[in-house]
Amino acid sequence: MDHKERIRGIKALPCWAGEVSLSPLEGGITNLNFLAEDAEGRFAVRVGSDIPEHHVMRFNELSAMHAAYAAGVAPRVKYAEPSVTVLDFVDSHTLTPEDVTAPEMLPRIVELVKRCHQEVPKHLRGPALIFWVFHVIRDYGATLAERGSAYADLIDELVSYGNALEAAAGPFDVVFGHNDLLAGNILDDGKRLWLIDYDYAGFNSPLFDLGGLASNNNLSEKQEQACLEQYFEAPVTGDLLHRYSAMKCASLLRETMWSMVSELTSEIDFNYAAYTAENLDAFRHSYADFKNI
């Protein structure tokens, strides 16, 4: 579908009150996003189909968004049909990694993440997925091999790292994770924080979100320690730190291999090769630190 056809399709949705105007929203690297305005207000429009190679299933995303709204951590879904979701637009500031690391902001984010973990599953309806990062890593390895990736020489090495991290990260608690804690998925409207984009939502270890929050936003060791203490309401033990560090590495490894697969499959205009290189370097440094714990 070309751009004009996509715009016509969005404008023809039955949810609008009168005429609707559309403008692109920047920042998506999995979906196309638009700002829509009609007689009732402003709305965010997310356009994207299932992406099986990334374990993104839109039925799961939609049920997670409904539950997250009921839990008070995400905007309301106004309308949805296959490949298109319309949500209330939050007039807000999209966080950057620098915002995340601000001393007054980080505790608020940890509270938001914990609320997601604990409250969203109380409102979840219908089938739900598990997001098991170690399975995702193995599956990415198989996809890269099948599709003749330029990173073929790295696949066995990276998958073996993932298997070793799985053994190190247990035993596992299970919560309902967001599983994509990039700064750009957190909004601040001046009064409260919102958590958006539930493409990868699913049951998971809480350490994956905490590790992803740290690795995606360059938290210092002191900040990581503070996050763990706040989340678990207890001093950080050596065992917890070891398991957390393994999950943090797994988060970086998954992000690296996600980008490798996206280089082969995505049609979105984004420099995936540079993103792969950046995350692979961060993973190698993190894994070296993990081995020294």
UniProtKB/TrEMBL annotation:
The record's section on InterPro entries has:
Kinase-like_dom_sf
Q: Which GO terms describe its biological process?
A: phosphatidylethanolamine biosynthetic process
Q: Which GO terms describe its cellular component?
A: cytoplasm
| Pfam families in alphabetical order | Choline_kinase
Query: Which is one GO molecular function term here?
Result: ethanolamine kinase activity
Q: Which UniProt keywords apply?
A: Kinase, Transferase
Q: Quote the protein name from its UniProt record.
A: Choline kinase
